[in-house]
Design a protein that fits this description.
Helix content: 40-55%
Strand order of the largest sheet: 3-2-1-4-5-6-11
Oligomer: single chain
Order of helices and strands: EHEHEHEHEHEEEEEHE
Low-confidence stretches: 1-6
Number of helices: 6
CATH superfamily: NAD(P)-binding Rossmann-like Domain
Structural class: alpha/beta
Strand content: 15-25%
Radius of gyration: 18 Å
Number of domains: 1
Number of strands: 11
Mean pLDDT: 94
Length: 254
């Protein structure tokens, strides 16, 4: 695993829990100054205090990625406080109730799209702008996709649609960023064991209608995969990486 320059700055959205928290802790360990963003400031402050106690550099910023003004304020603070941004891990995301499509409200659909698509776009746009104008120019954007960006689960239309959109945004950003030394890649995660996926251990509805327990994978493996992506020189890019529980129903899903 690459050891990062201690002066490099990374942003992690949704850093208060789950995958975001695990990735933030790993990037801190790698020597990054890490900006911790999320809607709930308490867990961000707790993680920042732990980092400082360990001699690491962290900045907690309350942010709602669905709100353009909130995202603009986040990146303005990054630029003012840190001077630049080297890695942006766009991780914040939510799901919707697993119900037939006709039972899903428009507000439930919109909430997922606002967070998983608009929120990722706002953060990608802001990171792209900062990386384009900073000196030296360039940086790396990593989007948290999902294996649902390739294959859906039953009753998951908002989440699946949102993650398919993220995949398209990742590819477009990778292309648009070439001339500015901005690399963009995506990590697609399957069944990493966090608060959100703890239900997998009790049973998840399968494509044939059967409820089945699914295997999970330690979230630390995801954190180390993001660490690898973040540590690459900008001349190399992982465009798409899948990290999943080996025996989970994905390759043969459905």
């Amino acid at each position: 695993m690459s050891t990062s320059n201690p002066t490099k700055v990374a942003l992690v959205t949704g850093a208060g829990s789950g995958i975001g928290r695990a990735v933030a802790k790993q990037l801190l360990k790698d020597g990054f100054t890490v900006v911790l963003a999320g809607r709930r400031i308490e867990p961000l402050n707790e993680l920042a205090e732990q980092a400082r106690a360990a001699g690491q550099q962290a900045l907690a910023v309350s942010t709602d990625v669905r709100d353009p003004a909130s995202v603009e304020a986040l990146f303005a603070q990054i630029e003012q406080t840190c001077g630049r941004l080297d890695v942006s891990f766009n991780n914040a995301g939510i799901g919707a109730p697993a119900v037939p499509m006709d039972e899903l409200s428009f507000e439930q659909w919109k909430n997922v799209i606002d967070t998983n698509v608009n929120g990722v776009f706002l953060c990608v746009r802001a990171a792209f702008g900062l990386m384009r104008r900073q000196v030296p120019q360039g940086g790396r954007i990593i989007n948290n996709g999902s294996i649902s960006s390739h294959t859906p689960r039953l009753f998951s239309s908002p989440y699946t649609a949102s993650k398919h959109a993220v995949l398209g945004l990742t590819k477009s950003t990778a292309l648009d960023g070439r001339q500015y030394n901005i690399a963009c890649g995506q990590i697609d995660i399957g069944n990493a064991l966090t608060e959100m996926t703890e239900r997998m251990t009790h049973g998840v509805l399968q494509a044939n209608g059967v409820l089945a327990v699914e295997p999970t994978v330690d979230v630390q493996h995801v954190a180390e995969a993001v660490s690898y992506m973040a540590g690459l020189p900008l001349s190399a890019n992982v465009l798409n990486m899948t990290v999943m529980a080996s025996s989970m129903p994905f390759v043969g899903r459905g």
